[in-house]
Amino acid sequence: MLILVTNDDGYRSEGITALAEAAKSLGDVVVVAPVDEASAIGHALTLKRPLRLESIRDGVYAVDGTPTDCVNIAVLWLLKDHPPDLVCSGINFGLNVGDDVTYSGTVSATFEGSLLDIPSIAFSQEVGEGFSFAASARMAARFVESVLSEPVPRDLLLNVNFPASTARGVRFTRLGKRVYRQSVVEKEDPRGRKYYWIAGTPEWREEDGTDCAAVAARQISITPLHLDLTYYRGLDAFAPLQATLAVAHDDNP
Ligand code: MN
């Protein structure tokens, strides 16, 4: 069993160190993570400049790029003769729930693992009173162990969030909805030029069955994800429009 561990907080972060240590009880572990923090970088792939791969110590590598770059360099180069059986990303400093997953570098690393046909799991930790990466990492390892005891589907893609305080159970959830209160603040720099800062604390719609509701109830949230963004109900909803567009096309071929 070979486990690739990555994150978006950088290879030095406490969360990745704890996760990598805990994962060693399950198999061989290779860490390939960004040199610097790359939170909220999403699924970005670096194509316009070369990437440097630095060997930090035995089994730990740093890449001056994004989490997605790290997964590619690990799977398609570093471990190309023996691809990892699992990609674990995290443990992120802060939750990645609901609409966060579209910004999250932590979760995007697992998107990339999934695209490369490797089962992938993202772990994120709520930051608040009493939180502990060590405790969450132990739970993450137990979790991975139970997942791996079953035959794992190649398209396994899970997003796990740990509450800050001691968890009161585990719940499979769907993604929650953000109440959009993100604000843009305008200020002036010392040279009189305006600059803008995107700020605001996310708030969530309180809906049962969601990841944010589970974490608020101090449960470990597990959301199964998939990369097919197709809006299936839309296929039916747009059928009349398809007919209209077909006529318009026939009139103007
Ligand atoms: Mn992060």
Structural notes for this entry:
- It is a single chain.
- With 253 residues, this protein is of the alpha/beta class.
- It is built from 7 helices and 13 strands.
- The strands form 3 sheets. A 9-stranded mixed sheet has the order 3-4-2-1-5-6-7-13-8, sandwiched between helices. Strands 9-12 form a two-stranded antiparallel ribbon.
- Helix 2 packs parallel to helix 3.
- The protein starts with a strand and ends with a helix.
- Bound molecules: manganese (II) ion.
- Manganese (II) ion (MN) binds at residues 8-9, 39, 92-93, 106.
Structure described in brief:
With 253 residues, this protein is α/β, with parallel strands linked by helices. Helix content is 30%, strand content 26%. It has seven helices and 13 strands.
Secondary structure layout plus pairing:
Elements: E1 2-6, H1 14-23, E2 28-34, E3 53-57, E4 60-63, H2 67-78, E5 86-93, H3 105-115, E6 120-125, H4 133-149, E7 157-162, E8 170-172, E9 178-179, E10 183-188, E11 194-199, E12 203-204, H5 211-216, E13 220-224, H6 232-237, H7 239-251
Parallel strand pairs: 1-2, 1-5, 2-4, 5-6, 6-7, 8-13
Antiparallel strand pairs: 3-4, 7-13, 9-12, 10-11
